[in-house]
């Protein structure tokens, strides 16, 4: 049974799992990713949901379809994903975090002390 975050579409959460697999090198560049059917079965979701997650990574250029073979991690995928995820973090999440840091009157040294815990 999966614990899906109800505030995000399931395909986005699957995409995040696939992204994590690439960023942590669980699946290396040039290697095959699990099939759509395998993921759909493992996660008990519709194969179209998994296909949508894969397509978003194809559109980003980090995975590639090989006809009759499946999905593979593209060369340079980790570097591309790092750049994309960093940009998304700085644009979408960082402003909210900075606002909260300021509201709580936290300073850099205090944040760094807690970062190591």
TrEMBL record:
Among InterPro entries, the record links this protein to: Tscrpt_reg_HTH_GntR, WH-like_DNA-bd_sf, WH_DNA-bd_sf
Does the entry feature the keyword RNA-binding, yes or no? no
The keyword Transcription regulation appears for this protein: yes
Q: Do you know which CDD domains this protein is assigned to?
A: WHTH_GntR (cd07377)
Could you tell me which residue ranges the HTH gntR-type domain spans? Answer: 8-76
Tell me which UniProt keywords the record has, alphabetically: DNA-binding, Transcription, Transcription regulation
Q: Which GO terms describe its molecular function?
A: DNA binding; DNA-binding transcription factor activity
Looking up Gene3D superfamilies in the UniProt record yields: 6.10.250.1220, Winged helix-like DNA-binding domain superfamily/Winged helix DNA-binding domain
A Pfam family reported for this protein in Swiss-Prot or TrEMBL: GntR
Return the PANTHER family for the record: GNTR-FAMILY TRANSCRIPTIONAL REGULATOR, HTH-TYPE TRANSCRIPTIONAL REPRESSOR YTRA
Q: What is this protein called?
A: GntR family transcriptional regulator
Species of provenance: Maritalea mobilis
């Amino acid at each position: 049974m999966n614990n899906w975050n109800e505030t995000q579409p399931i395909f986005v959460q699957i995409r995040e799992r696939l992204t994590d697999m690439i960023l942590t090198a669980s699946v290396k560049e040039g290697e095959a990713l699990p099939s759509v059917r395998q993921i759909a079965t493992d996660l008990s979701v519709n194969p179209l949901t998994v296909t949508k997650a894969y397509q978003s990574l194809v559109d980003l250029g980090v995975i590639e379809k090989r006809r009759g073979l499946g999905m593979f991690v593209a060369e340079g995928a980790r570097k591309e994903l790092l750049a994309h995820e960093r940009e998304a973090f700085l644009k979408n999440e960082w402003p909210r975090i900075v606002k909260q840091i300021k509201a709580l009157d936290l300073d850099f040294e205090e944040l760094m002390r807690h970062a190591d815990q």
